[in-house]
Fold this protein.
Amino acid sequence: MTGTTGSALGAPAERREGRQKVTGAARYAAEYTLPGRVHAWPVPAAAVARGRVTAVDTSAALALPGVLAVLTPFDAPGLAEPEDATLAVLQNPDVPHRGWCVALAVAETLETARAAAHAVRVTYATAPHDTGPVEGHPGAYDPDDAGGQPGRVEHGDPEAAFAAAEVRVDVTYRVPPLHNHPMEPHTSTAHWDGDRLTAYTSSQGGTTVRSVLAQLFRLPEERITVVAEHVGGGFGSKGTPRPDVVLAALAARHTGRPVTVAYPRRYLPTVVGHRAPTVQRLRLGADPDGRLTAVLHDVTTHTSRVKEFVEYAGVVSRVMYATPNLRSAHHVVPLDVPSPSWMRAPGESPGMYALESAMDELADALRVDPVELRARNEPEREPGSGKPFSSRHVVECLREGARRFGWAGRDPRPGVRREGPLLIGTGVAAATYPVQVAPSTATAEARPDGTFVIRVNAADIGTGARTVLAQIAADALGVPLERVRTEVGHSDLPPAPLAGGSMGTASWGWAVHEACTRLAADPSPPSGERHIVRADTTGTADAESPYARHAFGAHFAEVAVDTVTGEIRVRRLLGIFAAGRILNARTARSQFTGAMVMGLGMALTEHSTLDPAFGDFPEADLASYHVPVHADVPAIEADWIDEHDTHLNPMGSKGIGEIGIVGTAAALGNAVHHATGIRFRTLPLTPDRILAGLLSEG
């Protein structure tokens, strides 16, 4: 840690909770061993794709020694109707999709609870179900909202402009269902003390959990405490409360004992959300010089009948490239499937895969360098909104990345570089992610001993939030970093928005900066007492901006494709980003790198299939849903360009948690095309697909 006054911000400070995590001192939601704590195991609907529970036989389960209760839709405590219908667990006998919770076994030990859950016998009345496919589905509709934006944006006459274009690309890309698999599954421990509820939960937003529990259990918020000090990953799936915290609270109220619910990993794909599959048709029209005359981006995806969620993949075409004729539209099909939800860079991640792959195809058709094509279509204003950019350095990222990667020496011809049975290729893709921020509160306390304490109900989901917030405070206070302590992850702290949408640090940090700036004007405690300043950024952080605010980046990839096995080995990945002021060089590089690895998984290994017979996902564990492992990860370099943007927050920072995954899959797919001369338009690029393509070409 730096000890130099005023130089904390930007320094590569070590994360403060690191030692706790590697020594096991950090406690996660299942590790609060309260006196009398028991365990619960959910019973998912397993023999029906859609229908209704008609009977639940709990006799065999209750006969097991140590079993305390089995909650069913017929006897579970009642809840108020939630805004999020996925939380209405055990409230009625309806089964909207396979995997829906239909009972909960509670027992003295985890093993007994599991055995009891397996002993429960459920009888169903089945109903007709529809699991798609979405392509050509008669039930498709155009949503009004796509991630806070209109579901459809259209300028000019894109159909006519595309038909008249001298150079045209008309391609369709497919991304399968993808799943959040955090290291710590969704887990909660709940305890009632009279009419007071305490929930220890794995969540990206404890303030939201508290308000939702208050509404469900008809309690004032001050009677609820939510603790989420350490969170073992979430990637969006813990952005809002999931059934685990509701089930734990229900079981604890019913039994009068503290209860832990830790969802088994195999249940996660049907319970906590997933990235909905997308079918994306891209039509790009251009003149012979490579300037776009038309962009049409049509996205078809699914949602559940429980609640609407749109994978808003088309929004990226409203940001990236100049064109007088633009259409970005979403089409959604409601199906009898588990509810999709947020997964790292929702919308942008699959959307940029399709858009940047199509741009690579256009570059091939024009015989123009892919980096140069992107530079030629740099917009002066955001194409979708017409707003000026607060800052936009995507071309600089492309140029700097090309220089570092050695792009100038690349032979543009596909399929010509060989090393024995290996075909070698390189690819590039741009990246974008919006700058988002929400109101937050925070307090800064000056103590008589010359130290300072920052308090904010932020969620540190592994990003190093404690450390970066301390750096923001030290910088604003003008004191050494070691004199600042940070408290996060507890609902008794000042309320704060969730860690999601790459807006956590920008939101919390704004409130911390404001509190510390005011405290710095008079940091001495009066009469030797504590001196506390509170800040609330409501009305400023959420004020409408006249600027389009985005982070940008560029990805470069080199791959080797084995012509014998179809296996792809990634040799190099380089990411260059423009994300405002970097607040901690160490944790920022970690975030960029981790997101790039996740993008590698999206491109090469990760996928699941929607079973048409049952409407769920057979790839329900890490043996069948393949995330990258160490052997899959090449030398990865992540870096950034200095960017000064005065139209953001007081720190001048942009979110960095998601920009790293955006564009990675496209860069890898474009590299595979350059290696083989074959364009694969369905992810992931697994050996069976590659080998089939190579054999068909041979």
Residues 1-6 have pLDDT under 50 and may be disordered.
